[in-house]
Design brief:
Number of strands: 12
Number of domains: 2
Strand content: 5-15%
Strand order of the largest sheet: 1-7-6-5-4-2-3
Shape: globular
Structural class: alpha/beta
Number of helices: 18
Radius of gyration: 22 Å
CATH superfamily of the largest domain: Type I PLP-dependent aspartate aminotransferase-like (Major domain)
Length: 433
């Protein structure tokens, strides 16, 4: 099936009792067992089924199957937020210690997780000088447990060379984990290029309406955990908490995602509610159509900004002179992201004036909404980073991040135009003269 069909149908057929067409909301904490032996089999991971909604829920299970099929993976785990998904994704490969080698262009909170939070748990985040494969390769050593990248950086907008990063990661015996939130599987399927694990903030483009928090981890099923037993003992040695179960032996290709659910979801409890799963499914049904409008609107807005004398620079990968333009052609079929940044002449103060003057475009820190959104990263999402770290991540003091929505593009441009007029009135006057 194609994306548009998967987004509507995957993971669910009308259930036998009521024949409900919409996915039911199973608002229950627990599930009855047929017998003591049935309950034991479920908790021993010997039988499939539901035991407690902290671990799995039928509504969330439909969401997981749908996302897994969109990405082309063997399984998925839905959790409360995208940040929870990232946390589980990292510790699920490195809970015996080690390091995660990452590109520097990251969402601010992800950078904080790798640079400050995980080191307290014995997991070190190593940040390369750039997103180039050779820069990543320099940092990989015998203690590396994964390579990490955002397929499209937030807010930098850089497009990572997934195939090259995967090749380097695999040469060193580690998986490539990617955050595919901005691209979504509609624009890019990273497993097709060698990535092993994909992470999503479902709050963004997949959910699409800015109403619901959620996250997901998707397992490609392709990383050979058993082949790298010394580096990943958690998959190849008996787990005492499950009576000596060995994940690579028991689950094979789904070892990673089954361990994430059985070890981390079960004990840490970052649970997505069934109602949130239902709402996210509604958003996913229209994601393919929305992405088309997002991409087209962003192209027109970027072209408007680039031609405007009040604008100092526009970082949009859809322009042929962008260093990432070839990767947009290779990985995104020419569809540059609707998330991009720009700077106004006059620097930070002019940028703040522009930002405050917006009327239609909403000022907030979310992305991927049906509505157009704007953010000043230096003072919000990346505030905890030093000035040098901000620059490496693609954030300048004057940077404005736009997440272009699906409104009529003329209305979006008119709002930007009036805000630019307030921020740089002299520039318009000079251009007219």
């Amino acid at each position: 099936m194609r994306n548009e069909t998967i987004a509507i149908h995957a993971g669910y057929e009308p259930e036998a009792t009521t024949h409900a067409v919409a996915v039911p909301i199973y608002q229950t904490a627990a599930y009855a067992f047929d017998s003591a032996d049935h309950g034991a089999a479920l908790f021993n991971l010997e039988a499939e089924g539901f035991r407690y909604s902290r671990i799995a829920n039928p509504t969330s299970a439909v969401l997981e199957k749908r996302i897994a099929q969109l990405e082309g993976g063997v399984g998925a785990l839905a959790v409360a937020t995208g940040q929870a998904a990232l946390h589980f994704a990292f510790v699920n490969v490195a809970d015996h210690g080690g390091n995660i080698v990452s590109v520097p262009q990251l969402y601010g909170t992800t950078h904080t997780l790798l640079s400050h939070i995980l080191p307290r748990q014995g997991i070190i985040g190593r940040f390369a000088e750039s997103d180039q494969p050779d820069a990543i390769a320099k940092l990989i050593d015998e203690n590396t447990r994964a390579v990490f990248a955002e397929t499209i950086g937030n807010p930098a907008g850089n497009v990572c060379d997934i195939e090259a990063l995967a090749r380097i990661a695999h040469a060193h015996g580690v998986p490539l984990i990617v955050d595919n939130t901005v691209a979504t599987p509609i624009l890019l399927k990273p497993f097709d290029y060698g990535a092993d694990i994909a992470v999503h903030s479902l709050t963004k483009f997949l959910g699409g309406h800015g109403t619901t928090l959620g996250g997901a981890i998707v397992d490609s099923g392709n990383f050979p955990w058993a082949k790298h037993a010394d580096r990943f003992p958690a998959y190849n040695k008996p787990d005492a908490s499950y009576h000596g179960l060995v994940y690579a032996e028991r689950f094979g290709r789904t070892a990673y995602i089954e361990r994430a659910r059985s070890v981390y979801q079960r004990t840490m409890g970052s649970v997505l509610s069934p109602f949130n799963a239902f709402l996210l499914l509604q958003g996913i049904e229209t994601v393919a159509l929305r992405m088309e409008r997002h991409v087209e609107n962003a192209r027109k807005v970027a072209e408007f900004l680039r031609k405007d004398s009040r604008v100092a620079w526009v970082n949009y990968t859809g322009f042929p002179d962008s260093p990432y333009y070839p990767l947009v052609q290779k990985y995104l079929d020419g569809n540059a992201s609707s998330l991009f940044t720009f700077g106004i002449k006059g620097g930070m103060e002019a940028g703040k004036t522009f930002y405050d003057a917006l009327k239609l475009i909403t000022r907030l820190v979310n992305i991927g909404d049906a509505k157009s959104l704007a953010c000043h990263p230096a003072s919000t999402t990346h505030r905890q980073m030093s000035a040098e770290q901000q620059r490496t991540a693609g954030v300048l003091p004057e940077t404005i991040r736009l997440s272009i929505g699906i409104e009529h593009v003329s209305d979006i441009i008119e709002d930007i135009d009036q805000a630019l007029e307030k921020a740089c009135p002299s520039a318009r006057l000079q251009a007219a003269e």
